[in-house]
Specification:
With 313 residues, this protein is an alpha+beta fold. Helix content is 38%, strand content 19%. It has nine helices and eight strands. It has an eight-stranded mixed barrel. Helix 3 packs antiparallel against helix 8. The protein starts with 8 loop residues before the first helix and ends with a helix.
Length: 313
């Protein structure tokens, strides 16, 4: 029996176009094509973080200060008048002894223990707060001028008089300027003669009117001396901005607190939230997320038709 003639090998082999092509592995070229997109995303995120950091940090610091002030006010309101007066009397006695012993703006080591206990009703070192209405500043005042204090609040210079007022007193308060994380005394150079600022200590509100503004070298302390019979308070910060070779001294003398600013704050008011700031903080992450999504998400491609199926039709 004759064998059937075998079909040519070329006829047996299916056209290459009809074979199912094996899945191709993503090439290094395609992988590398994503690198610019990833770099752009990281660049945008980093840039936005740097842009928002001062505002976010300052807002966070302001919120922290507001909570400290609110806690202080609540603690004051919980004390009866007799206890508050007793604490004020102790502070006035301390100031009198400071003057009688010879005021030198330095605090002897043996007196430091008693100093840090005076006016401290919360155990945190806060002795009151300062409000500079013109600058929109309201900051807690703490004992001493350690770096931990000055990073977020105003420090009371230890050797100066406690901020309770009285004749022959000169209180000195220090605050940083130009910190990226907090406003503090950054705008203190905008104060002018005749402007006012207020200190709130226990039940007393002390208002001072600016009468002297000086720029001095760090070792020039004569302007911080006592003026006989006067009740003075000086705010001190570094200057020029960002260079800090000198000190800016803004001094005020005590005046009667105007009726329109008496008791204008209650604890709840301190913690009011600026809705515009919150809106920016909430919108920024959403915008970043949308931008990243637009960069990462590629348009869907229509599946390619197989050549074999097309030829069979």
């Amino acid at each position: 029996m004759k064998k059937k003639a075998e079909a040519p090998k070329s006829a047996k082999a299916a056209p290459a176009s009809e074979k199912t092509a094996p899945a191709k592995k993503p090439s290094a070229k395609k992988k590398s094509s994503k690198a610019p997109t990833i770099f752009l995303i990281l660049f945008v995120v980093a840039g936005l973080s740097l842009l928002l950091y001062p505002s976010v940090s300052n807002y966070w610091n302001s919120l922290h200060s507001s909570r400290a002030i609110s806690g202080y006010m609540e603690a004051v309101n919980s004390l009866d008048d007799e206890k508050q007066q007793s604490m004020l009397d102790e502070a006035h006695a301390y100031n009198k002894k400071l003057f009688d012993d010879g005021y030198t703006l330095t605090l002897p080591e043996p007196r430091k223990a008693s100093y840090f206990k005076l006016l401290d009703i919360t155990g945190t070192g806060i002795m009151g707060y300062i409000e500079i209405q013109k600058l929109g500043v309201m900051l807690p005042i703490y004992h001493g001028t350690g770096e931990e204090v000055l990073q977020s609040a105003v420090g009371h210079i230890e050797g100066s008089f406690l901020p309770v007022g009285g004749e022959n007193t000169h209180t000195v308060l220090s605050g940083h300027r130009g910190l990226p994380s907090a406003k503090l005394f950054t705008d203190l150079d905008k104060m002018q003669i005749g402007d006012t600022f207020s200190l709130k200590v226990l039940k007393d509100e002390l208002t001072y009117e600016v009468d002297q503004i000086l720029t001095v070298l760090p070792h020039e302390l004569d302007a911080l001396n006592v003026v006989p019979g006067e009740d003075l308070c000086t705010l001190i910060t570094c200057t020029p901005y960002g260079i800090n070779t000198h000190r800016l001294l803004v001094r005020g003398h005590r005046i009667e607190t105007p009726e329109d600013i008496k008791s204008r704050l209650v604890p709840g008011d301190v913690l009011r939230v600026n809705t515009a700031v919150v809106a920016v903080f909430l919108a920024a992450p959403v915008l970043v997320a949308l931008f990243i999504l637009m960069l990462v998400k590629s348009p869907k491609q229509k599946p390619k038709k197989k050549r074999g199926n097309a030829a069979a039709k």
